[in-house]
Amino acid sequence: MNIGEKMDKFEIICTIIIIVIILSVILVPELNLFKNEYNLQKSFCAENIAQYSVLKSGKVFDLYLAHKGDQRCTDLYLINLDGSHMNQLEIQEFSLYCTTVDDYFKSFYDEEENKIYTLATKNRADYYLLEFDTEDTLINHKFYFLYHDDLYDKLQNKSIEITGINFTGFNTSESLPDSVKVIKENNNCKIIMKKSLFRELLKKSHLNFCNFPLSKRISKLIGTNLKCEFIPENLFELIHFFSRNSYYGNHRLNNSKKMNTGFLIGDILARIDINDDGTKEFLIQISGDRWLPSKLVCFDKKQNKILWERDFCGFIKNFKLIDINHDNKKEIVASTYAPRNQTPIDYFEKDYFNSTLYSSLFILNQNGRLIQSNNEPLIVHSEQGYYFHKFIKLPNKKEIIFGLSSKHDNSTKNLELWNLEKNEISELAIDYNNLLSIDIEKKDIIIIDRIKDAIERKRYSSNYKLVDKKIYNTESQQDFEYHLGEIDGTKVSLSSYPNILLDDSLKKLVEIDEFMHQPKIINNKLFFIRKDDHLSTLMKIEGSF
Question: Which of 113, 164, 233, 415 could disulfide-link to 430, CB 3.0 to 4.6 Å?
Answer without folding.
Answer: 415
